[in-house]
Specification:
Layout (H helix, E strand, L loop, with lengths): L2 H13 L5 H22 L1 H6 L4 H5 L11 H6 L1 H4 L6 H14 L5 E2 L2 E5 L9 E5 H15 L8 E7 L4 H4 L6 E7 L4 H11 L3 E4 L1 H12 L9 E4 L6 H11 L3 E7 L2 E6 L5 E3 L4 E9 L4 E8 L7 E5 L2 E5 L12 E8 L4 E4 L6 E4 L1 H9 L5 E10 L2 E8 L3 H18 L6 E6 L12 E3 L6
Parallel strand pairs: 4-5, 4-6, 6-7, 7-8, 18-21, 19-20
Antiparallel strand pairs: 1-2, 2-3, 8-9, 9-10, 10-15, 11-12, 12-13, 12-14, 14-15, 16-17, 18-19
Protein name: Adenylate cyclase
Organism: Cytobacillus gottheilii
């Protein structure tokens, strides 16, 4: 892929500014209308789906177009994409890459990836060489700590590599994939050899690197550290920032695109120059919603009114950075990891949002350094904690705070089963708040 295409996109992204929210929305309207015209001509699925919605499209009423999700996309994959790739051939290429750990093969000029399946079912994602250039130029413009013309060595810790990520390594920018299936000893050696200027990875891995740095097992001085793939918990953010003495940045990216990143003030902003976001509220009063996204830069695998099951909390006040891009307070987890309790009077099953549980544990005892909560039954929660104080004392304080939360919400107190925390980073995404309920309301 031509480095000039990447450079052109980098320059476009850097120069693109919006004086106001009104200017931004006008830009989106132009882009989305043109995008939909192309998609309807090239995707049989969307030609059929959007046929009854021409009036809404002409009037820019994007929020009235039908919503789809991963299940619908995968059911109609063969007619969904615009590059005439069949699901069975795409799965074959992706699975061979997973098994051999060679992620370079493509179908024609299209790279194939496999989503990690944390939402319950695995999916395929396609990205053409042209889209790779757009992605690479955009992400370099938004995330590099200095100019693209300066030298950068990027260490990228991921479950799987992809041509998408390799595209970022052009010219003076060298990209180094760290396979999470490799040994921790090999990671330590490569970090010490490379001395990366940028480290990107899941917070569980970044925290382990911070441990190594603290124990002098690695000696690196990155200019920027970026959290990806997992929910960034405050407990991890504080620790990593303290060890490396810098702000930890957060990127919200998934199979469906490069959705958001932190600004210089640490606020997460959606990349609304790439995607249009509508909010599907779960709790409007608390500002909690699931995003419905339309990516108007991707054509090979269209993402139009696509609902994610991530739980996000909107930022009520404007960010001091001045960006007109939509801001979020935090990414809270997934809707399929909501805990549930039984109301003491009505007997109704009611949701408990992850942040309530997170706060209950983290405010219980200041010496807690690691934790995980798993709900396997409505009346049973397994809690794993680790800390610098007496284990029994920490468990008793956590129990008090959890029961206080349930009492406040008027829910029956569950049985709490405590275990020692023994989680280690792996290729599987870590969840600190995890629901294993078989049947959910």
């Amino acid at each position: 892929m031509s480095k000039w295409k990447i450079l052109l996109q980098y320059i476009k992204t850097k120069r693109r500014t919006f004086r106001s929210r009104t200017d931004l929305l006008a830009y989106q309207n132009r882009k989305i209308k043109s995008h939909l015209e192309y998609i309807q001509q090239n995707s049989p699925f969307y030609a059929d789906l959007l046929k009854p919605y021409q009036k809404e499209i002409n009037e820019h009423r994007w929020d009235e177009l039908p919503i789809i999700d991963k299940t619908i996309m995968m059911e109609h994959f063969d007619t969904f994409n615009t590059v005439n790739i069949r699901a069975n051939e795409a799965f074959k290429v992706a699975m061979e890459a997973e098994e051999t750990r060679n992620f370079s093969p493509k179908i024609r000029d299209v790279s194939i990836g496999l989503s990690s399946g944390t939402s319950g079912n695995r999916g395929i994602f396609l990205i053409s060489d042209q889209e790779r250039a757009i992605w690479s130029g955009t992400i370099l413009a938004k995330l590099l700590p200095s100019s693209i013309f300066r030298k950068h060595t990027i260490a990228f810790f991921l479950r799987a590599n992809n041509n998408l990520y390799e595209a970022a390594g052009e010219g003076r920018i060298s990209f180094h994939f760290f396979d999470l299936l490799d040994s921790l000893e090999s990671h330590q050696k490569r970090l010490n050899d490379l001395k990366p200027s940028i480290v990107v990875g899941p917070p569980s891995m970044l925290r382990m690197i911070a441990d190594w740095q603290k124990q002098n097992e690695v000696e690196i001085t990155p200019q920027k550290i970026i959290s990806v793939a997992e929910v960034l918990e405050e407990i991890d953010q504080r620790y990593i920032e303290k060890v490396f003495q810098q702000k930890l940045h957060n990127v919200y990216q998934c199979t469906e695109g490069f959705l958001a990143a932190t600004c210089s003030h640490g606020t997460i902003h959606f990349n609304e120059d790439l995607v249009c976001i509508h909010k599907q509220y779960v709790d409007k009063e608390k500002g909690m919603f699931m995003p419905v996204i339309t990516d108007f830069t991707r054509t090979s695998q269209p993402i139009i009114r696509y609902q994610l099951n991530d739980l996000l909390v909107e930022k009520k006040t404007a960010c001091s950075c001045g960006s007109p891009f939509m801001a979020v307070e935090r990414i809270d987890g997934r809707s399929d990891d909501l805990f549930y309790g039984i109301h003491t009077e009505s007997g109704e099953k009611l949701p408990i949002f992850p942040d309530f549980l997170r706060r209950a544990v983290m405010t219980a005892h200041e010496q807690i350094t690691e934790y995980k909560m798993v709900q396997s039954h409505l009346d049973k929660i397994i809690i794993l904690i680790k800390g610098k104080d007496d284990q029994t004392e920490m468990e008793q304080e956590v129990k008090k705070h959890i029961w206080r939360l349930y009492d406040t919400l008027h829910l029956h107190r569950p049985q709490l089963i405590f275990q020692m925390y023994d989680e280690t980073p792996s290729h599987i995404k870590r969840k600190r708040i995890e629901s294993r309920l078989q049947e959910k309301p």
